[in-house]
């Protein structure tokens, strides 16, 4: 209908055409904003899942830590058993570290972090190993 008014030479055709262009631009801006917000929402959801996964991993670590026996000074009869348990604990923690690093890289990619930003986060994490 708007195009018909413009095409048939309505006396305000120039004004109508300007308004039409303005509405079209506003609509395009709105669609772009919707897409940007959808991407931000998706990234926020990923970040929320990441922190939830981190809490879960922390719970696993705490659970593994509680399974370690109390060590008393001078109790050498169970040294081998304790060493085996600590080795198993270390292995389990290393598996969790690997999972956390993989998940971290995934969330970094989702958030679009640069190599420098990733390095600033990962280097201290790796140094703690």
UniProtKB/TrEMBL annotation:
Superkingdom of the source species: Eukaryota
SUPFAM superfamilies membership: Spectrin repeat
Protein name (database record): Uncharacterized protein
The species this protein was found in: Chiloscyllium punctatum (Brownbanded bambooshark)
């Amino acid at each position: 209908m708007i195009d018909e008014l413009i095409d048939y030479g309505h006396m305000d055709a120039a004004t109508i055409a300007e308004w039409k262009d303005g509405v079209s631009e506003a609509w395009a801006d709105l669609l772009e904003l919707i897409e940007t917000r959808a991407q931000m929402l998706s990234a926020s959801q990923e970040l929320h899942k990441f922190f939830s996964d981190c809490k879960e991993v922390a719970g696993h670590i705490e659970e593994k830590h509680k399974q370690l026996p109390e060590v008393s000074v001078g109790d050498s009869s169970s040294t081998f058993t304790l060493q085996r348990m600590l080795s198993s604990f270390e292995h389990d923690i290393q598996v969790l570290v690997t999972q956390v690093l993989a998940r971290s890289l995934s969330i970094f990619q989702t958030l679009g972090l640069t190599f420098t930003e990733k390095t600033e986060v990962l280097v201290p994490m790796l140094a703690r190993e």
